[in-house]
Specification:
heterotrimer; A alpha/beta; B mainly alpha; C mainly alpha; A: alpha/beta; D-Maltodextrin-Binding Protein, domain 2; five-stranded mixed sheet; 17 strands; C: mainly alpha; MetI-like fold; 2 domains; 0% strand
């Protein structure tokens, strides 16, 4: 049955109209145009502010959500009331996957809406800045941006989390560090020292071989493959890459098919091709969760993870795979460079860190008050209140010094790991680079020789970046 | 069954509908307008906009978010030469063929046919279980199947005595095909159940009494009557299966993209990679492929109409 | 009964039994894990406890989200069924030019709009209409996506129902609206009931649209809240998830049972049997 002329012309008209409207709407609803006055609304007597973060009471990061609702909001409202300003502060929670949170946040900020104080993953700063969703702090709040006492308490490296192109975009929101966790009982059984600090990759492999003698034990859990997502890149590939002295993104661009990349893939092959790890576990959708349970059950010898593992996975009280004897049985060591002195900056040991940052929405109506709220949330007492009686690495050195005093592992990270750590490049295309790296490790675990996997990685990278311009090879 | 006239067995497609109630053009249009209005605003407009996005390099973050450029057909060229896209397309066709055409349709028909002669209790139990599988929300069903197919502790391995067998890892496509068959058979079963009711029992009787085997009865009496329904059913379930996102919750497209059907590919592209322009182009390509499928079904099942 | 009949019967029951087992086994986890003190992905006899459910009660959003799901599903069901039935009836009985093509086109376009790529246009559209964080907005968007398939199915249904009753009623002098109310609707009830159930099921399980369009947690439906029962590192809290999944599943099952009792779940042939 052929469509009548009326139907056809109606459809055509509709299409043209929609395209035209789409074109207009697309341009018209862009957030972030010319910078506006940082002093707007500064004298208002009635102020409304919203805070958003990927946390929700009763669900994800519930502690942070509770802190905002029960501490930050009431205290700040009191503070403002004492100055004669009626402040209404609300919290917009979210409890979903990071990527979905990022999507929703992007949609909000693109339309010029969204909360006034937003928390982002540090890795998103670059792309959000390039998209115009966030602007340098000085632009949004004026010269007051440099006047905060807290800046002195935040190490320069950690400040990178909230910076892009040399400018501050907000305040970092906690950080972490990666180490090798090892099971002291298994080490004792295999005849390895229970206070262990490897100084080279070879020592890791040797310890793995000793562990391989034990029945029903996976010597090494080094995240690999695409099922574990960013956990593969952060806990697996990047610390090793740092151990070869190469940075993922440097002067010549991104690491392509370079010697450093091939060495890292070679290490993966030594582990998974040499019977020192469980290749199938890396492919499972819940593989990471399972690896945690296996470690807690004493079936994994070494695990490359961040302090999140210590705090939230094997913690005897609040962990999801609790180990009652965690403090006696779980050891931790710095991740060595390939050999001493081979790491980035000539370091003997390396690590990777991540974390969040909190920024001020450039479209806020009350930038000065939002800045005060942000400062308050990052003051020593507020950060201390946020921790409560749990221990966690915060962005402030003064709070860390007190709060971590009772937790040797976190003190270890704060004092020994953070100074040697590195952060991921916060560029928009990073997720695709990460994906290509994950696929390269997956190929090696499945049996592809490292050289070939590195070539496939190079091809994938060129596809993602649209050409070989920004890639170094060698 | 006191009907004054016997209803047509199935209306001829494309024949002028009889305005039995005397609606008239104006009233009919009035009936249709509310639905069309809703659809025009909330479906057609965003869909056309998405098609427009497919012509740009728009991203949700990064430079291309601030200054998207129209790149014309470049996204399409890129998709058609992207081995991941082509792999995804192939897997999706496999998925539709396996779980919709073969799985749901055949199982649904088999159930509808067999349950006609089953005792009432059996019929209720089976139908309820089949409906339950369809009704439960996707996220819940995903957990159920992950628990079933788990490598170490899964129920299936316990039942079959095959511990350590990673079904989702070694047979990802088979797993999601069986999963989707389990999930969606209810629709086919209902539709065929109703269609079989419309087959005049007298013709079946005649065929049986003249010694036709069950297979011959099916082929010569039943099938001609339900041909139109087979078409509608296949069309809808193919479309739904083609766009079904639920397998993501089971395998996340893995391992290594071996079960990365197109809806998952679009999700990875749009959300994980943030490439909305490219993702939109792929959505349009999916639509065109669905169109081709629809045309194929129409051709196959409209032929030989007397 | 001959031997052949006997074998036939046995085979019949074996097949039925296999199919029944196939359908039933996966569901068992839902009945064991919520009551398990240490739930895992295995289906096993649980260490019986109610703590997972009490944990849900402590969550401020868990129960309101179920209510929100009911609102969203109910609202969409009403819109889709009402508008869909009217449109399907009109399209079935009256020859409107371009009808079939229009339906196919709309059906195909609905597949774009329910996919991920359309989320930005939908968001921006709702933003322009000032309907972000509005449950009504979610209902409108979801209904728009479901209507083409609903009309398609219902029209097929109505094409196959005989016009004889309507013709007879007309002969007796009833007006078209009266015919619609007294003749058509009762006949079409099973089909409409099916579409109503289908619409509810689609909306009940939908995550992406409410997630993109809603901001207040008090308005979020269960599909969204289910995904918040994870730790900050992304590990699942199986106790809460399984308990919530059970609660989340019960309303739709109850609804199905209710509709089945009352209307019978059939597509065609309301008057034939």
């Amino acid at each position: 049955m052929s469509p009548s002329r009326t139907t056809r012309s109606l459809l055509a008209l509709g299409a043209v109209a929609a395209v035209a409207l789409a074109g207009c709407a697309d341009g018209g609803s862009m957030g972030g145009g010319a910078p506006s006055d940082p002093q707007r609304g500064a004298d208002a007597e009635q102020v409304t502010l919203t805070i958003t973060r990927n946390a929700v009471q009763g669900g994800k990061s519930a502690r942070d959500a509770d802190w905002i609702v029960d501490y930050v909001i009431p205290r700040f409202t009191e503070m403002m009331a004492a100055e004669g300003v009626q402040a209404t502060v609300t919290f917009v929670p979210s409890g979903v996957d990071d990527e979905q949170y990022k999507t929703r946040l992007s949609l909000d900020m693109r339309s010029g809406a969204g909360a006034d104080v937003v928390t982002l993953d540090g890795i998103w700063v670059g792309e959000f800045a390039q998209a115009g969703y966030i602007r340098p702090l000085e632009e949004v709040v004026g010269p007051a941006a440099a006047d905060w006492e807290g800046w002195a308490q935040i190490p320069d490296a950690v400040e990178q989390l909230a910076s892009f192109d040399g400018q501050r975009y907000g305040i970092p929101d906690g950080t972490d560090g990666r180490v090798i966790f090892y099971h002291k009982e298994l080490f004792a059984q295999a005849g390895l020292p229970t206070e262990w600090q490897p100084t080279s990759w070879q020592e890791i492999l040797d310890a793995g071989r000793a562990l391989a003698q034990l029945p029903d034990v996976d010597p090494i859990q080094l995240n690999a493959g695409t099922a574990m997502g960013e956990a593969t890149t952060m806990q697996g590939f990047l610390p090793l890459l740092a151990g070869t002295g190469a940075a993922l993104h440097g002067e010549g661009g991104w690491q392509g098919d370079t010697a450093a990349v091939r060495e890292v893939l070679g290490f993966y092959q030594a582990v998974y091709g040499g019977g020192l790890g469980d290749p199938l576990l890396q492919q499972e959708a819940q593989g990471r969760d399972k690896s945690f349970q296996e470690f807690a059950a004493g079936r994994v010898g070494m695990l490359f993870e961040s302090d999140y593992f210590w705090r939230s996975v094997v913690d005897p009280e609040v962990g999801i795979a609790p180990m009652a004897n965690r403090d006696e049985v779980v050891g931790y060591a710095k991740i060595p460079a390939r050999e001493p002195g081979a790491g980035v900056n000539g370091q003997d040991f390396v690590s990777m860190s991540g974390g969040g940052m909190t920024a001020i929405n450039p479209n806020t109506q009350f930038p000065q008050q939002a800045w005060r709220l942000l400062q308050f949330m990052n003051s020593a007492e507020a950060v201390r209140a946020r921790l409560g009686d749990s221990a966690r690495i915060t962005q402030r050195e003064d709070v860390n010094a007190e709060a971590l005093a009772n937790d040797p592992m976190l003190t270890f990270v704060a004092e020994q790991v953070l100074p040697i750590t590195a952060y991921r490049p916060g560029l928009a295309v990073y997720p695709q680079v990460s994906q290509a790296l994950q696929e390269a490790t997956a190929a090696v675990v499945a049996g592809t020789p490292p050289d070939q996997a590195a070539q496939q990685y190079q091809a994938a990278l060129e596809g993602a970046l649209g050409g070989a311009d920004d890639i170094t090879t060698g | 069954m006191a009907l004054t006239t016997s209803p047509p067995v199935e209306p001829r497609r494309g024949s002028p509908a009889t305005d039995a109630a005397g609606l008239g053009r104006t009233r009919a249009t009035a009936f249709v307008v509310p639905a069309l209005a809703l659809v025009a605003v909330f479906l057609v407009y965003p869909a056309l906009w998405t098609i427009y996005l497919g012509l740009t390099n728009y991203r949700l973050t990064g430079l291309a978010a601030a200054r998207p450029e129209v790149v014309g057909l470049e996204n399409y060229a890129r998709a058609l030469s992207d081995p991941d896209f082509l792999n995804s397309l192939w897997l999706t066709l496999l998925y539709v063929l396996g779980s919709a055409v073969l799985g749901q349709c055949v199982l649904g028909f088999a159930l509808a046919w067999m349950l006609r002669s089953a005792p009432r209790v059996v019929r209720t139990v089976v139908e309820s279980l089949v409906m339950l599988a369809w009704i439960l929300p996707s996220s819940v069903v995903a957990f159920l199947w992950i628990a079933l197919l788990d490598r170490d502790n899964g129920t299936l391995n316990a039942l079959l005595g095959t511990p350590g067998m990673g079904w989702l890892l070694q047979y990802p496509m088979l797993s999601i095909i069986v999963f989707n068959t389990w999930r969606g058979t209810a629709f086919s079963m209902l539709l065929f159940g109703a269609a079989l009711n419309a087959v005049p029992p007298s013709q079946l009787e005649t065929a049986r009494m003249s010694g036709a085997s069950a297979w011959q009865q099916l082929r010569d009496v039943v099938f001609p009557h339900i041909r139109g329904h087979v078409l509608t059913n296949l069309l809808l379930i193919s479309l739904w299966t083609f766009n079904d996102f639920a397998p993501y919750l089971l395998t996340a497209g893995g391992p290594d993209g071996r079960s990365e059907i197109l809806p998952i590919f679009v999700y990875q592209t749009a959300i994980s990679d943030g490439l909305l322009g490219f993702g939109s182009a792929i959505s349009l390509l999916m639509l065109l492929i669905n169109l081709v499928l629809a045309v194929v079904y129409l051709r196959l099942l409209r032929e030989r109409r007397p | 009964m001959t031997a052949r009949d006997l074998v036939g019967r046995v085979a019949f029951y074996v097949v039925i039994a296999v199919i029944t087992a196939f359908m039933a086994v996966p569901v068992l986890w839902l009945l064991s894990a919520p009551f398990d003190a240490a739930p895992s992905l295995t289906t096993s006899l649980p260490e019986w406890t109610w703590q997972n459910f009490t944990g849900l009660l402590e969550n401020p959003y868990a129960l309101t989200s179920l209510l929100n799901s009911v609102l969203l599903a109910g609202g969409s069901m009403v819109l889709v069924t009402a508008l869909g039935a009217l449109a399907a009836y009109a399209l079935s009985r009256v020859h409107v030019p371009g009808r079939d093509v229009l339906l196919y086109v709309l059906l195909l376009l609905s597949s774009i709009v329910t996919g991920t790529a359309a989320m930005v246009p939908i968001f921006l559209l709702m933003f322009e209409l000032n309907m972000i964080d509005s449950r009504l907005g979610v209902v409108l968007v979801l209904s728009g996506g479901l209507l083409p398939a609903a009309i398609f199915i219902l029209k097929d249904f109505m094409d196959a129902t005989p016009r004889s009753y309507e013709e007879s009623a007309r002969v007796f002098g009833a007006g078209p609206l009266q015919i619609l109310r007294d003749v058509v609707l009762p006949t079409a009830r099973p089909g409409i009931a099916t579409i109503a159930v289908w619409a509810i099921v689609q909306v009940w399980g939908n995550f992406l649209t409410p997630f993109i369009l809603l901001r207040s947690p008090e308005k979020s439906p269960a599909a969204v809240v289910l995904y918040t029962f994870y730790t900050e590192g992304g590990q699942a809290d199986l106790g809460l998830i399984s308990a919530f999944s059970l609660l989340y599943s019960i309303p739709v099952v109850v609804m199905y049972v209710f509709v089945n009792r009352r209307y019978g779940f059939r597509f065609h042939g309301g008057i034939k049997r």
